[in-house]
Amino acid sequence: MAEIIDGTAVAAAVRAEVAQDAAAFQREHGRRPALRVVLVGEHAASQSYVRAKARAAGEAGIDAETLARPADLSERDLLALIARLNADDGVDGILVQLPLPDHVDEGAVIRAVDPAKDVDGFHPENVGRLVLGEPTLEPCTPAGIVELLRRTGVETSGAHAVVLGRSNIVGKPLASLLLRRGLDATVTVCHSRTRDLPALARQADVLVAAIGRAGFVTADMVKPGAAVVDVGINRVDDASRERGYRLVGDVDFDAVADVAGAITPVPGGVGPMTIAMLLANTVEAARRRAAV
Ligand SMILES: Nc1nc2c(c(=O)[nH]1)N[C@@H](CN(C=O)c1ccc(C(=O)N[C@@H](CCC(=O)O)C(=O)O)cc1)CN2
């Protein structure tokens, strides 16, 4: 049976460290690091993630405010809001919750955020730095996965890491992080057109599933002893639950746990790390801005 990697516990440790850093920042600069979260529309999951982010930020001593706008907010007005936050010297971090409504060009919004305040690490300038191996604000989910592996002693150096999914939020930046000096993995990124994906997955010492399909990774796709990281958050109807659904990952957890050496659960794995790394990025952005 695999070791279950407790993302909630690791995230709590990261959040406690961030709270200390935020308190030190306040002592040194006479103000708290400030985060502004922009939420457009009423996407239920996004509302819940944004609430969790604001609560966690407040608990860490970060001045957090959510700016909720209606789903019919025009792209022009959203860009104007971002311009206002960019110009506000008291704001250190800006996050626009994704997905955005269809009428808004996500790329234009991401490019509009000042790279120095881009605590999501999605701006092309920050992505470029990440690929080059330069210090930057790193996207929260990939950074959280790397932190989870590091703090639970999963060896990446020389390991074959297979990432399932090539999204801009997870797959691509995670591949860049795992390739970095210090992590030194050999990385394969698989996607919907990959030939014989199960055969590649079976070669993985570290297998990361980020494709958004419930139970996609089955036990026969996992090398015995591998570390399996499940990024998927899929809602499955479940009348026995109060909210009418339960969350499952991209990995068939029970079967894969019999084969893997270590595995992250859903919920309680990567998700809490995403929020913890957002807090860390906010304090980091505040420090960098105060230093220039
Ligand atoms: N601007 C951004 N938008 C989105 C991001 C992002 O990093 N930046 N990532 C995802 C969603 N996400 C953060 O926003 C996120 C997803 C899940 C969790 C989480 O803690 N999940 C819990 C379960 C929560 C529940 O019960 O519903 C878990 O896995 O234990 C946090 C953040 C898309 N959008």
From TrEMBL:
EC number: 1.5.1.5, 3.5.4.9
Keywords annotated in UniProt: Amino-acid biosynthesis, Histidine biosynthesis, Hydrolase, Methionine biosynthesis, Multifunctional enzyme, NADP, One-carbon metabolism, Oxidoreductase, Purine biosynthesis
Sequence ranges assigned to domain Tetrahydrofolate dehydrogenase/cyclohydrolase NAD(P)-binding in this UniProt record: 139-289
Pathway in which the depicted protein is active: One-carbon metabolism; tetrahydrofolate interconversion
Family per similarity comment: Belongs to the tetrahydrofolate dehydrogenase/cyclohydrolase family.
InterPro entries, sorted: Aminoacid_DH-like_N_sf (IPR046346), NAD(P)-bd_dom_sf (IPR036291), THF_DH/CycHdrlase (IPR000672), THF_DH/CycHdrlase_cat_dom (IPR020630), THF_DH/CycHdrlase_CS (IPR020867), THF_DH/CycHdrlase_NAD-bd_dom (IPR020631)
Catalytic activity: (6R)-5,10-methenyltetrahydrofolate + H2O = (6R)-10-formyltetrahydrofolate + H(+); (6R)-5,10-methylene-5,6,7,8-tetrahydrofolate + NADP(+) = (6R)-5,10-methenyltetrahydrofolate + NADPH
Purpose of the protein: Catalyzes the oxidation of 5,10-methylenetetrahydrofolate to 5,10-methenyltetrahydrofolate and then the hydrolysis of 5,10-methenyltetrahydrofolate to 10-formyltetrahydrofolate.
Pfam families per UniProt: THF_DHG_CYH, THF_DHG_CYH_C
Annotated NADP(+) binding sites: 165-167, 233
Source organism per UniProt: Rubrivirga litoralis
Domain Tetrahydrofolate dehydrogenase/cyclohydrolase catalytic: residue ranges: 5-120
Lineage: Bacteria, Pseudomonadati, Rhodothermota, Rhodothermia, Rhodothermales
UniProt name for this protein: Bifunctional protein FolD
Family annotation (HAMAP family): THF_DHG_CYH
Gene (UniProt): folD
Assembly and binders: Homodimer.
